[in-house]
Automatic annotation (TrEMBL):
The keyword Ligase does not apply. Pfam families: ABC_tran (PF00005). Keywords: Transport. It comes from Thermoanaerobacter thermohydrosulfuricus WC1. InterPro entries: ABC_transporter-like_ATP-bd, Metal_Ion_Import_ABC, P-loop_NTPase. The lineage of its organism: Bacteria, Bacillati, Bacillota, Clostridia, Thermoanaerobacterales. This is ABC-type multidrug transport system, ATPase component. One of its GO terms (molecular function) is ATP binding. Residues 6-56 form the ABC transporter domain.
Length: 133
């Protein structure tokens, strides 16, 4: 089996997209499209993956699948994943570090340990609606 085919199977398994790869794009939900796009992005085994607002518009099932897939990519496959997002709740369940950027400048960086909505609101003067992890 060719290297590309092995990678398709490996990443389609992680992202739960095997059954989606033969479907027409216009038949896929937003969450399915996001996962198929990430699968395609991984085929040549990059060292890192950059995702821009990956949780936007996703239903709860798609968010759970995406969170699980990103954790697997990071923890088991050792791929660095950089996520740009305003969805602090999604990030808190997905990443191990936060980098806060304001007007293009890094203003803070910290580990994802016991972060509360109050911490974020007090320090950065933004509203954060976090659910308990």
């Amino acid at each position: 089996m060719g290297e590309l085919k092995k990678n398709i199977e490996k990443y389609a398994d992680v992202l739960k997209t095997k059954e989606l790869l033969t479907r027409k794009v216009n038949t896929l939900s937003m969450g399915q499209k996001e996962r198929v796009t990430i699968t395609a992005s991984l085929l040549h085994e990059p060292e890192f993956l950059i995702l821009d607002e990956p949780s936007n518009g996703l239903d709860i099932e798609s968010r759970i699948l995406l969170t699980s897939a990103i954790k697997t990519l990071r923890e088991e496959m050792k791929i660095t994943v950089l996520i740009a997002s305003h969805d602090v709740d999604f990030l808190r369940k997905t990443v191990d570090r936060f980098i806060i950027i304001n007007n293009g400048n890094i203003v803070d960086e910290f580990a994802n340990i016991n972060i509360t909505a109050e911490d974020i609101e007090n320090k950065y003067k933004i509203h954060a609606n976090l659910k308990e992890a």
